[in-house]
């Protein structure tokens, strides 16, 4: 590594440009740029023959489809995608790291929940809709609740409608319908809602209240059916009356000191670039290792972005059962893509490629860096709740919004989102911490990016220092001592419920 390029492994035959390189520029004593090379894009460190391996992360990210000269710009069109790693008979448990960095603190201030489980990082009244048809009325009611009721309850942070596109015209009994139903069931009981259940149903949808709530919760104290009300005013008044009762209870919640075992942190890669696996993601991984050491639950996701590193993750699985579940989730997704006549190379996105990523293999190597080095103790299907503390692989689509929604359903109460391109992502249910992979992005978006990891590439900081900054910000944010920029500006993306079942 020097000030102009980053080489990650001694075996690599490519490096990435720390800043744009101009044709003829001397990069090292023995390396001259033969092309104008954009920031984060790859430069050949030696001659690479057609058909030869292109190595980054000491991993074959592809094969040269033409002769490449030393100093040449290697772009996406010069790289042939390799075969995906086999999912059968993967080696497991051979890379179990137990020496993890010690966290500087192991407690935080959160809201305990009456039924146990993860604690709240915020105190929110969540109003779940069973179907999109109820959304318009609920949104109108929420506007009135925020204006007229919420000021009466100073200990409640917000009232949030849980709107989604599921519920009507869906194959409710299809095998894969279990995924969206599970997601919505678990969202209804998010730890930030303080055990208060409030559901607004239309009354004729396929996702009935009976499918959403257990019998003991399906009561007039928790459920409003719009088709049983008298006019629009009657609908809104019914919602406001129930909301006032729920707000009265939530207003009594108090923050108390809690162990890290009551915290669930979700890590999401976001709009990756070629710096992602050098700066932002390894830093988040270091923070994850400290959280795990302290007893927290940490989830990382995105199946497509982990598929090409699955063999590396398998070696960190603590048991055969965990490894088998990992393989099963990957196989399910392989089949899901093949049924749509799409392969894994549909990812990366155009912005990822502009940021220097040639293909999904390169993206995957950077993406899995956010998992740190901790053992993987559990694998979840989309929207499942963890049963263990430690590092957990939560299988989700790579789609940012579907991934975030799935992690919310799994009980995530703080979200850490790495970005290389500048996503303005945020969530209403939990605070979202934005980490940039490049200093230039922080300079461009100073009031959106919370942590700049780009200083690692320029030798102004280290993975450990930035990782500690992320760790402390997670705990301060979870404790309500700090608000993220996404919270300040109320940047709130729509929920996107993953529904692989048919629409009828």
Explain what you see:
There is one protein chain. The N and C termini lie far apart (55 Å). The chain is α/β, with parallel strands linked by helices and 504 residues long. The protein has a seven-stranded parallel beta sheet, with helices on both faces. Strands 1-2-5-8 form a four-stranded antiparallel beta sheet, with no helix packed on it. It is built from 13 helices and 22 strands. Helix 1 packs across helix 4 and helix 5 crosses helix 12. It folds into three domains: 76 residues, Archaeosine Trna-guanine Transglycosylase, Chain: A, domain 4 (Roll), CATH 2.30.130; 140 residues, Rossmann fold (3-Layer(aba) Sandwich), CATH 3.40.50; 168 residues, no CATH class.
Write the layout of secondary structure elements.
Layout lengths: L4 E2 L7 E4 L8 E3 L2 E2 L9 E3 L8 E4 L2 E6 L8 E2 L4 E2 L26 E4 L13 E6 L5 H15 L8 E5 L15 H11 L10 E3 L7 H4 L10 E3 L5 H20 L5 E4 L4 E5 L11 H14 L3 E4 L9 H5 L5 H20 L10 H5 L5 H8 L8 E5 L9 E5 L5 H10 L4 E6 L12 E5 L2 H6 L6 E2 L10 H16 L6 H5 L15
Parallel strand pairs: 11-12, 11-13, 13-14, 16-17, 16-20, 17-19, 18-19, 20-21, 21-22
Antiparallel strand pairs: 1-2, 2-5, 3-4, 5-8, 6-7, 7-9, 10-15
Keywords:
504 residues; alpha/beta; Archaeosine Trna-guanine Transglycosylase, Chain: A, domain 4; Rossmann fold; 3 domains; 7-stranded parallel beta sheet; globular
Specify the number of helices. 13
Strand content: 15-25%
- Structural class assignment: alpha/beta
Radius of gyration equals 24 Å
Q: Biggest sheet, open or closed, and with what strands and sense?
A: 7 strands, parallel
Task: Write down the domain tally.
Answer: 3
Strand order of the largest sheet: 18-19-17-16-20-21-22
Mean pLDDT: 97
The rounded distance between the terminal residues' Cα atoms is: 55 Å
The share of residues in helices is 25-40%
The residue ranges in which pLDDT falls below 50 over 5 or more consecutive positions are none
């Amino acid at each position: 590594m020097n000030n102009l390029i980053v080489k990650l492994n001694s075996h690599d035959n490519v490096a990435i440009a720390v800043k744009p390189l101009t044709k003829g520029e001397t990069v090292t004593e023995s390396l001259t740029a033969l092309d104008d090379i954009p920031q984060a894009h790859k430069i050949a460190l030696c001659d690479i023959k057609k058909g030869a391996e292109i190595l980054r992360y000491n991993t074959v990210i592809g094969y040269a489809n033409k002769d490449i000269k030393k100093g040449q710009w290697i772009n996406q069109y010069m790289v042939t995608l390799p075969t995906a790693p086999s999912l059968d008979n993967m080696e497991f448990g051979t890379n179990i790291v137990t020496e993890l960095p010690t966290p500087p603190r192991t407690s935080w201030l959160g809201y305990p929940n009456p039924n146990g489980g993860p604690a709240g990082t915020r105190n929110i009244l969540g109003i779940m809709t069973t179907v999109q048809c109820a959304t318009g009325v609920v949104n109108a009611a929420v506007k009135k609740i925020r204006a007229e009721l919420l000021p009466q309850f100073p200990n409640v942070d917000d009232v949030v409608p849980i709107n989604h596109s599921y519920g009507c015209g869906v194959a409710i009994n299809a095998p894969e319908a279990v995924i969206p139903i599970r997601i919505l069931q678990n969202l209804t009981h998010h730890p930030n809602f303080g055990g208060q259940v409030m559901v607004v149903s239309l009354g004729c949808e396929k996702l009935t209240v009976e499918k959403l709530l257990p019998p003991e919760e399906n009561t007039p104290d928790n459920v409003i059916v719009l088709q049983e009300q008298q006019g629009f005013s009657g609908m809104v008044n019914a919602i406001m009356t129930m909301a006032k009762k729920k707000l009265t209870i939530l207003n009594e919640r108090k923050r108390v000191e809690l162990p890290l075992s009551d915290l669930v942190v979700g890590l999401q890669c976001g709009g990756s670039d070629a710096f992602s696996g050098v700066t932002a993601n390894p830093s988040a991984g270091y923070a994850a290792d400290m959280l795990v050491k302290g007893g927290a639950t940490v989830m990382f996701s995105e199946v497509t972005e982990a598929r090409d590193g699955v063999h590396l993750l398998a070696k960190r699985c603590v048991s055969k059962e965990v490894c088998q579940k990992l393989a099963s989730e990957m196989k399910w997704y392989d089949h899901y893509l093949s049924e749509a006549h799409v392969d894994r190379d549909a990812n990366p996105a155009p912005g990822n490629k502009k940021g220097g990523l040639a293909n999904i293999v390169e993206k995957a190597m950077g993406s899995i860096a956010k998992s740190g080095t901790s053992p993987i103790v559990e694998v979840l299907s989309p929207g499942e709740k963890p049963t263990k503390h430690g590092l957990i692989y939560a299988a989700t689509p790579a789609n940012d919004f579907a991934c975030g929604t799935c992690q919310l359903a799994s009980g995530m109460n703080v979200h850490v989102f790495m970005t290389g391109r500048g996503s303005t992502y945020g969530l209403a249910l939990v605070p979202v911490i934005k980490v940039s992979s490049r200093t230039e992005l922080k300079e461009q978006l100073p009031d959106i990016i919370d942590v700049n990891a780009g200083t690692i590439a320029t030798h102004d900081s280290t993975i450990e220092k930035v990782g500690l900054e992320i760790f402390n910000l997670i705990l301060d944010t979870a404790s309500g001592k700090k608000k993220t920029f996404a919270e300040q500006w109320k940047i709130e993306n729509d929920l996107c419920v993953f529904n692989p079942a048919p629409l009828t």
